[in-house]
Write a sequence for this structure.
């Protein structure tokens, strides 16, 4: 089915700050949907709360703007209900790696066939500039005026440490062309796909700016020595930050899906099951 | 002689197989057409601690445990000591002399029929390890009650099945040993059980399994939950049926994930449910409000146990009523149903799914440990009367797209807006936890905010007009005392009404299942017929009494409140009712 970029647009105007990295993520998702060539009515976008959460308003598909941190369980519910949909969960670093961290770890274990995009700008934007789980130590913010103390979360390393997830990538909101291919690959991948997106917050993060990233990012696929099936190598590249920052697919593999173990889904998606003629009388014998 | 009317109790340490034995005992009675109500008590431990299981048997109705125990099977010494108070003159105690080598058992000055059965020796002779004394006790009990051996054997055969014939034969041998040791003796024991001629088929079901069966019958396709007493058995039972019934059962990482998954599935057009207890419900609260504002159907079972916090995990309570009624920030419509017995657990769970989809809002089924884990004999479910109603799901050909979106939250007279399901062409819209306009777009406009709130609450008005049922009166119409209660209060209250009749007192029971929205006019009408009212509930602050006062201006004459984790006993309720006369 042919989809144009215009088709992906809603009548809502994004209310992000001018120059926000979220625009890059939005365009990346839209371009991926165009390239996917599926009816937009078959895509379901779940977002959370935060600047990233607004994104579902700007994509012309079915969607859910849920509560803070719960994008993945909502998306999982949608996926169980209709696993033929293209389910895309979209979070931020606070939403996904802070309050929603538990769901991140457990959803990875399941390798469900859906895509997870995280806007990672290393700051809380919507609540006006507090430090986030991915903020570098020492960074002064409104909730860490003396400098953040904790060791930041490295989502790529966490994902690599989980043996459940089968697609792990990092994109940069300043390179939409590259980002949209990663998102498209993630959507096409049979399994749970994480795309962590480096996404500058132009208002509250004066350190991790477009220039900061532009001078550091490189593409793994342009490095002929890189093997995306080698977890050890992926771990090494994921640790890079100060000198250079890897983008692209860190790791991709084929492994069983959670739904492979759900015979109920094999015949038809749950939503298509007939429910008005369920016969429970065969279950009675256990109670007599 | 006392025919078909007694209470049997078995007690011992956790790990002795008390619950299994109790269930087998109930089933043997029910197979012969007798009615049973079984109530287990156990501490929050895996092994050790004192466990009991008591079964009330009656020819006509059994809905509650009673105080007086007529047959006590003591699997250890402690059981006799702990339950001596419940014995009356004429009661029998089946015990193992092995446990009483130093001193014979006593029960104050009551005349007890002491029935020594060499349970340990029999188990040793049959080389069945340490477990097995329980089943010997069952055999001895039925001989004492003069119940036909054929039914006992038949049920035990069915229970253990044909998979492991050795296990089945061993259990039959042990039961028979107990039966034969007592058969023909103890003529002075007055209680008898007699099987009915051509008994009707019955099920022995707990509230938890009834809820699970009701959900399956309602076409629930996703069950997501995190284990928590007293609701864990729903997860256990449904997991077993996952492949049989073609559903998905997800044991999630926590209760937050559980309810959010159920809501996601609900938004995608699949009937979904979660169940928990107060602590887990506390974690679900934020998502509950999301389902409210986004107008997504979801069914939540809240199984109460005494709080606050961890409280008493394995005991009962009705202390979360106000929590269910007010949980989550802001105001949104919810439907709160309180099934009172095993049959209501089944039918109201079925109903809950229809209501959730019709009104596109959360439905909370509030139950408690008492009804969830008590096992009642009931007639087979009347499945024919049950019809699925999916509410306003709009057919593909009727979908109209305006201003680039489907008008998911359109203003309507009844407050219910048509919905599309993801995947339907031209039906796309966004569900949102933010306040929104008719299209689902975020709004901060004052008038729009008020209108959307009014629209959502209009659904409750519609529910009162079309679905919320009036409270039901059980017993004589114009009784001197009316017991008023909700949920599992029904169980002891119905027994109280019967006890009162036997003693020529006039007591009836007004039972509430539809708690919110409360059909106020019908409630006020119901109270026009009452004389003295006695509100009975399982909490300290009178949450239900306060709710009726607040909503319908009802004032009670007196109340009984229990918050020690134990259910009500009919004898005690009757005594309270008598005081009002």
């Amino acid at each position: 089915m042919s989809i144009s970029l215009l088709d992906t647009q809603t009548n809502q105007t994004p209310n992000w700050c001018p120059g926000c990295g979220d625009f890059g993520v939005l365009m990346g998702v839209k371009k991926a949907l165009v390239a996917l060539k599926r009816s937009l009515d078959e895509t379901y976008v779940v977002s959370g709360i935060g600047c990233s959460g607004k994104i579902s308003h700007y994509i012309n598909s079915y969607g859910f703007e849920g509560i803070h941190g719960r994008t993945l369980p909502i998306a999982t519910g949608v996926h169980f209900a209709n696993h033929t949909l293209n389910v895309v969960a979209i979070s931020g670093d606070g939403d996904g790696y802070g309050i929603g961290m538990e769901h991140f770890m457990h959803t990875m274990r399941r390798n469900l066939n859906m895509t997870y995009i995280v806007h990672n700008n290393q700051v809380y934007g919507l609540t006006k500039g507090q430090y986030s789980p991915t903020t570098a130590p020492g960074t002064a913010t409104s909730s860490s005026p003396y400098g953040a103390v904790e060791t930041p979360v490295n989502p790529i390393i966490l994902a690599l440490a989980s043996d459940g997830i089968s697609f792990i990538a990092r994109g940069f909101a300043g390179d939409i062309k590259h980002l949209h291919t990663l998102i498209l690959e993630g959507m096409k991948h049979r399994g749970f796909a994480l795309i962590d997106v480096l996404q500058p917050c132009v208002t509250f993060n004066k350190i991790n700016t477009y220039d900061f990233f532009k001078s550091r990012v490189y593409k793994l696929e342009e490095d002929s020595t890189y093997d995306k099936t080698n977890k050890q190598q992926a771990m090494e590249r994921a640790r890079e930050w100060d000198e250079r920052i890897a983008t692209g697919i860190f790791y991709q593999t084929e492994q069983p899906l959670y739904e492979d173990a759900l015979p109920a889904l094999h015949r038809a998606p749950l939503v298509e099951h007939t429910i008005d003629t369920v016969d429970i009388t065969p279950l009675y014998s256990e109670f007599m | 002689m006392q025919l078909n009317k007694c209470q049997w109790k078995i007690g011992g340490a956790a790990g002795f197989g008390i619950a299994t034995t109790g269930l087998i005992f109930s089933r043997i009675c029910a197979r012969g057409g007798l009615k049973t109500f079984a109530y287990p008590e156990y501490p929050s431990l895996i092994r050790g601690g004192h466990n009991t299981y008591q079964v009330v048997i009656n020819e006509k109705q059994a809905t509650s445990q009673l105080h007086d125990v007529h047959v006590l099977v003591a699997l250890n010494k402690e059981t006799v000591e702990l339950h001596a108070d419940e014995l009356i003159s004429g009661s029998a105690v089946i015990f193992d002399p092995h446990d009483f080598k130093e001193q014979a058992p006593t029960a104050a000055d009551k005349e007890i029929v002491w029935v020594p059965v060499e349970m340990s020796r029999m188990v040793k002779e049959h080389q069945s390890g340490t477990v097995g004394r329980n089943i010997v006790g069952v055999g001895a009990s039925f001989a004492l009650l003069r119940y036909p051996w054929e039914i006992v054997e038949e049920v035990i055969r069915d229970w253990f099945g044909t998979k492991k014939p050795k296990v089945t034969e061993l259990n039959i041998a042990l039961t028979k040993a107990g039966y034969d040791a007592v058969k023909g003796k103890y003529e002075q024991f007055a209680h008898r059980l007699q099987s009915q001629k051509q008994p009707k088929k019955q099920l022995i079901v707990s509230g938890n399994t009834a809820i699970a069966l009701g959900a399956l019958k309602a076409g629930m396709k996703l069950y997501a939950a995190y284990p928590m007493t007293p609701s864990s058995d729903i997860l256990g039972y449904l997991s077993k049926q996952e492949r049989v019934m073609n559903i998905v059962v997800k044991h999630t990482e926590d209760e937050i994930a559980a309810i959010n998954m159920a809501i996601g599935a609900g938004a995608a057009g699949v009937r979904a449910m979660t169940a928990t207890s107060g602590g887990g419900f506390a974690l679900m609260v934020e998502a509950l409000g999301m389902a409210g504002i986004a107008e997504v159907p979801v069914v939540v079972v809240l199984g109460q146990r005494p709080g606050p916090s961890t409280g008493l995990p394995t005991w009962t309570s009705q202390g979360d009523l106000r929590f269910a009624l007010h949980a989550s920030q802001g105001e949104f419509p919810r439907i709160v149903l309180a099934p009172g017995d095993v049959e209501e657990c089944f039918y109201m769970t079925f109903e809950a799914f229809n209501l959730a989809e019709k009104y596109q809002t959360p439905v909370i089924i509030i139950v408690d440990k008492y009804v969830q884990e008590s096992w009642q004999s009931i007639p087979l479910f009347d499945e024919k009367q049950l019809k699925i109603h999916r509410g306003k799901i709009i057919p593909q050909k009727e979908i109209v797209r305006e201003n680039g979106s489907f008008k998911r939250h359109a203003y309507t007279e009844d407050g219910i807006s048509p919905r599309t399901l993801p995947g339907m062409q031209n039906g796309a819209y966004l569900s949102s936890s933010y306040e929104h306009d008719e299209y689902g777009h975020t709004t901060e406009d004052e008038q729009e905010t008020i209108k959307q709130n009014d629209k959502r609450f209009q659904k409750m008005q519609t529910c009162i007009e079309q679905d919320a049922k009036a409270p039901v009166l059980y017993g004589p119409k114009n009784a001197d005392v009316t017991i008023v209660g909700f949920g599992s209060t029904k169980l002891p209250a119905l027994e109280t009404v019967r006890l009162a009749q036997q003693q020529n007192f006039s007591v009836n029971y007004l039972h509430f299942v539809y708690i919110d929205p409360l059909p106020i006019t019908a409630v006020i009408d119901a109270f026009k017929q009452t004389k003295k009212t006695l509100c009975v509930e399982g909490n300290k602050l009178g949450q239900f009494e306060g709710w009726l006062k607040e909503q319908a201006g009802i004032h009670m004459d007196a109340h009984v409140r229990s918050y020690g984790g134990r259910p009500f006993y009919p004898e005690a309720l009757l005594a309270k009712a008598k005081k009002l006369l």
Remarks:
- Chain A has a mean pLDDT of 97.
